[in-house]
């Protein structure tokens, strides 16, 4: 066997999970999950289209930008982006989402799985007003699985260790990569300048 195709085959390769790894799973938010959200500035959102196409999208904002509406519901504001709407289109056909919340400098993460919907309720949008601007919409997630994830991935990767940070100049700029990937008339320098201008004008 070189390709694993069944759960039974999988479990011949891996040990059973520790009891605490199973017992830590909750259906709602406890005080620690709420405290994590209050300090969190970044979340990765995994979704899947009805036909099976998977997607992971990042969202970031000021710490605490994700609100706990109650013990079983969280809300995530959507600020201006590239308007591909991969996540939202997936949610419309398949509401199941998986979320990983990160706090810079903290090796543990918070994971939440549940069912999402997209809301433009005026009162809900108003809760997320920032710099006199409202989000375009709000993703509301009904939690089904909530648990803290251990630090191994971050310890192995040294993600928050400044000694692992690359010199940004050693990697092509975003504009240079876009220029290589798309037949655009603009130079890499022009693309980078235009992106910087858009960041300033459309961050919120």
- Major beta-sheet overview: 7 strands, antiparallel
Unreliable runs, pLDDT <50, ≥5 residues? none
The spatial strand order of the largest sheet comes to: 2-1-5-6-7-4-3
Order of helices and strands: HHHEEEEHEEHEHHH
Ends: how far apart?
52 Å
The secondary-structure class comes to alpha+beta
Mean pLDDT over all positions: 96
The percent range for helix content is 25-40%
How would you describe the oligomerization state of the chains in this entry? single chain
Radius of gyration: 20 Å
Measured by DSSP, the beta-strand proportion falls in 25-35%
Anisotropy-based shape: globular
**Number of helical regions:** 8
Extended strand count: 7
What does this structure look like?
The protein is α+β, with helices and mostly antiparallel strands and 204 residues long. It contains 8 helices and 7 strands; from the N terminus they run H-H-H-E-E-E-E-H-E-E-H-E-H-H-H. Helix 7 (174-181) crosses helix 8 (188-202). 17% of the residues are buried.
Brief overview, please?
The protein has 204 residues and is an alpha+beta fold. The protein is 31% helix and 27% strand. Strands 2-1-5-6-7-4-3 form a seven-stranded antiparallel beta sheet, with helices on one face.
Q: What distinguishing features does this structure have?
A:
204 residues, globular, 7-stranded antiparallel sheet, alpha+beta, 27% strand
Q: How do the helices and strands line up, and which of them pair or pack?
A:
Layout lengths: L6 H7 L5 H5 L7 H9 L2 E7 L5 E7 L6 E4 L2 E6 L7 H8 L2 E7 L6 E11 L2 H5 L10 E13 L2 H6 L16 H8 L6 H15 L2
Antiparallel strand pairs: 1-2, 1-5, 3-4, 4-7, 5-6, 6-7
Helix pairs in contact: 7-8
């Amino acid at each position: 066997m070189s390709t694993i195709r069944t759960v039974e085959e999988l479990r011949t390769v891996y040990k059973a999970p520790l009891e605490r790894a199973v017992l830590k799973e909750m259906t709602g938010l406890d005080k620690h999950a709420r405290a994590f959200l209050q300090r969190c500035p970044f979340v990765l959102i995994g979704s899947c289209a009805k036909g099976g196409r998977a997607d992971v999208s990042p969202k970031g904002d000021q710490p605490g930008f994700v609100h706990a509406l109650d013990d079983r519901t969280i809300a995530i504001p959507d600020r201006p982006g590239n308007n591909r709407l991969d996540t939202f289109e997936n949610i419309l056909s398949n509401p199941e989402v998986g979320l990983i919340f990160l706090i810079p400098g903290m090796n543990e993460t918070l994971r939440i799985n549940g069912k999402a919907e997209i809301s433009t309720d005026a009162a809900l949008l108003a809760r997320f007003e920032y710099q006199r601007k409202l989000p375009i919409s709000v993703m509301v997630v009904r939690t089904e699985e909530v648990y803290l994830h251990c630090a191994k991935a971050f310890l192995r990767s040294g993600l928050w260790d400044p000694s692992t940070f690359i010199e940004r100049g050693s990697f092509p700029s975003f504009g240079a990569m876009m220029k290589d990937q798309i037949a655009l008339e603009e130079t890499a320098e022009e693309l980078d300048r235009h992106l910087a201008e858009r960041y300033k004008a459309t961050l919120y």
